[in-house]
Write a structure and sequence with these properties.
single chain, alpha/beta, eight-stranded parallel barrel, two-stranded antiparallel ribbon, 11 strands, 18% strand
Length: 321
């Protein structure tokens, strides 16, 4: 059965700003608190703060960017969050955009797929208390973490297109998607995940979809909220390519027209509560294991109270498990 979780819909500037969202996980049917890469309060530290404040909930990193830290540091940070929260952690990673790779590494990855394979192989070995010996093209490591009991840390990989989905099938525990319509997940991503898993002789990873959503509100159309949520993504070549593969009519030149296309193409969910639930059901039927409700657009366009209100209304309206 598909689970539902929540994404912190902004970049926290103080760690206590996470607490209301951690409370949703503690007090509602939401299963996990997710946060993407942040450059103010870093997500590992924010989750540890929430745990110290009494909100010891399962968390997910969706996703942190590989160029920012060596895989040894990534393993230490992920296990540290598991120890601080006492709960399972999904540690999701992604290569980031080419401009960030160039800024941090001097040049972009020649092959993001190879870089991700090397990176997750090292992190997995370290978290399994193995002695790791990887001499990679992009990352290398020899050694081990000091063994210590901790809640499980599952490895996630950010997935947009088939090649990365096949890789996730081979090496990840969870495939994490962003802005992907349900039909695209069913027709493109899941078959690629299954192909990669079969090639590696392992179970198919879980599929977690981070889904932008907004309830209807007077004077604020869904296209405006979609743009407030995804303006940066609508300028990213990898997102534009994925959306075009999904049949969403984005052009990459007029972001306002592209925001309308997100709504029309099912990449951004909107409507009254019943309509949103129907659209979420499409993700369940597509085979998604976890839907992460992303109200970033509501937060940016209408404010924090409206964003929290949408999350509460959607979570309370979901069928009982």
């Amino acid at each position: 059965m598909t689970g539902y979780s929540v994404l912190v819909p902004f970049l926290p500037r103080r760690p206590e700003q996470l607490l209301p969202y951690a409370g949703l996980v503690q007090w509602t049917r939401a299963e996990r608190l997710w946060q993407g890469q942040a450059l103010y309060v870093e997500p590992h530290q924010g989750f540890a703060h929430a745990a110290g404040a009494g909100f010891r909930v399962p968390v997910g990193l969706g996703v942190t960017l590989m160029p920012l830290r060596h895989p040894y540091e990534a393993a230490v940070q992920a296990r540290s969050v598991a120890l601080a929260t006492g709960q399972p952690v999904v540690a999701g990673f992604g290569p980031g955009g080419r401009s960030m790779q160039r800024s941090l590494l001097g040049q972009p990855y020649r092959s993001p797929l190879t870089a991700a394979r090397e990176y997750l192989t090292i992190v997995r070995g370290l978290l399994a208390n193995e002695v790791v010996d990887v001499k990679g093209e992009f990352v290398s490591f020899q050694g081990a973490l000091p063994a210590f009991p901790a809640p499980p840390v599952e490895l996630g990989l950010g997935v947009l297109r088939p090649a990365m989905a096949r890789l996730a099938g081979e090496i990840a525990d969870v495939a994490i998607t962003w802005l992907t319509p349900a039909s695209y997940l069913a027709d493109i991503v899941l078959p690629a995940l299954r192909e990669g898993a079969a090639r590696a002789g392992r179970p198919v990873p879980r599929l977690t979809a981070i889904v932008p959503v907004a309830l209807e509100r007077e004077g604020l159309g869904p296209d405006r909220i979609a743009l407030a949520s995804n303006m940066a993504h609508l300028k990213g070549p990898h997102y534009i390519d994925m959306l075009r593969r999904a049949g969403v009519g984005v052009g990459g030149e007029d972001v306002e027209a592209d925001a309308k296309a997100l709504v029309a193409g099912g990449a951004f969910l909107s409507g009254d509560t019943g309509q949103v639930l129907d659209q979420l059901l499409a993700y369940e039927k597509a085979g998604v294991d976890e839907v992460v409700l992303n109200v970033t657009g509501v937060f940016n366009a209408a404010g924090a109270q409206e964003a929290m209100s949408d999350l509460k209304k959607i979570l309370s309206a979901l069928p009982s498990v």
